[in-house]
Amino acid sequence: MSFFFLYAQVQLKEIIEELPDKMDTELVESGSNLSVGQKQLVCLARAILRKNQILIIDEATAHVDPSTDELIQKMIREKFAQCTVLTIAHRLSTIIDSDRIMVLDSGRLEEYDEPYVLLQNRDSLFYKMVQQLGKAEAAALTETAKQVSPLWEL
């Protein structure tokens, strides 16, 4: 896969073309010559190129705009569909279509199951977190969890 094709996929092509030395631009320490979203997209492109079988994502979309969040989530689902992806996130929409969700409270494992299964238990911490988002958002997240659940297909 060429760098240019990959950068176009993660929507960095225009940004790279605007840099002083294009692809040869040196990123300064901590990537301070890029926005938070741009840095996340560069990291995503690097992960895609490495073709790792395990991807650990820690708050990858916490400080990005909604369109960049959507792009990052889409690329992760497409490019890492056959990989193990561990996602650490507070934004529940980021993880609702995961195979399994692990809920930690004060560093302790409290729950671990499929999202739809967790949402069926009104005593579940995950259920309570989803409900705190409001009726409309809770309904949307529950529907997404239901659609991706293998149990729903039975």
Automatic annotation (TrEMBL):
Q: Which GO terms describe its cellular component?
A: plasma membrane
Q: Per UniProt, what is one Pfam family of this protein?
A: ABC_tran
Locate the transmembrane regions by residue number. none
The ABC transporter domain extends over 9-62
| Record key words, sorted | ATP-binding, Nucleotide-binding
Domain of life, per the record?
Answer: Eukaryota
Q: What is the name attached to this protein's record?
A: ABC transporter domain-containing protein
